[in-house]
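Quick one, probably user error.
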């Protein structure tokens, strides 16, 4: 047996990554423990996609952190099944939610924070509150609109909400598509000048916010950087990402 295929080498490699590497074999088949672990990971990812967000509890928790009004909104997708089958409906608010935003008093908000279940309600329930505690304390001086919690929402719904609030900048916190090692990964999308028709090239994304990935402190630092640079340069997206890379290199 060569060194690169030895059990000791495989064990060292597995200690460095959650990826499925160096798996053992029994004849031509995988070992039972590895097969069962894969089936468990698949089940956790599937459950995360279908889970329903406990929006009332999350809204109350966010209200205690932000010490302000928190709005509960809903996309045009009536339930989880339709949300998964019709991505377009998850990108638009239903009539009741649009009316609720229209009825708010007009103020010049610098920042709109939108929280949506996305493809992992579990990620939102676990990570949004501790991330907000870490981040909002660093945002002193910003005029922040009422936080919006959206059920059955996708990233682009933040554009409609940000535009309705007339906010300069929108930060969307959303459950990311589960992987076989990360069913509870939270993503943050930062968009300057939110409006209908924004493309992903005009956003910045911070992903894999969770205990095994990017910590809350690291994510809050990155959010502060992108928000500050977006306000200073009046843009987000590819150009800002390139500039951030040059700053880090410099």
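Nope, works fine. Designed sequence:
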């Amino acid at each position: 047996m060569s060194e690169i295929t030895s059990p000791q080498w495989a064990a060292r490699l597995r200690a460095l990554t959650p990826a499925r590497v160096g798996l053992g074999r029994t004849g031509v088949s995988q070992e039972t423990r590895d097969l069962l672990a894969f089936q468990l990971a698949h089940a956790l990812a599937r459950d995360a996609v279908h889970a329903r967000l406990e929006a009332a509890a999350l809204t109350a928790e966010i209200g205690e952190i932000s010490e302000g009004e928190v709005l509960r909104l809903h996309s045009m997708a009536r339930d989880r099944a339709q949300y998964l089958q019709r991505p377009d409906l998850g990108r638009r608010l239903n009539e009741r939610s649009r009316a609720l935003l229209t009825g708010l008093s007009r103020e010049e908000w610098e920042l709109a924070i939108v929280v949506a279940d996305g493809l992992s309600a579990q990620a939102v329930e676990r990570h949004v509150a501790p991330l907000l505690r870490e981040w909002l304390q660093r945002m002193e001086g910003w005029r922040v609109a009422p936080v919006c919690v959206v059920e059955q929402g996708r990233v682009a719904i933040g554009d409609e909400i940000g535009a309705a609030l007339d906010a300069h900048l929108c930060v969307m916190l959303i459950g990311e598509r589960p992987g076989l090692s990360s069913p509870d990964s939270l993503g943050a999308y930062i968009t300057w000048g939110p409006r209908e028709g924004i493309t992903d090239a005009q956003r910045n994304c911070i992903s894999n916010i969770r205990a095994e990935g990017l910590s809350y402190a690291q994510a809050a630092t990155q959010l502060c950087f992108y928000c500050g640079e977006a306000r200073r340069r009046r843009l987000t997206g590819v150009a800002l990402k390139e500039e951030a890379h040059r700053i880090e290199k410099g």
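The domain at 53-249 is CATH 3.40.50.11240 (Rossmann fold).
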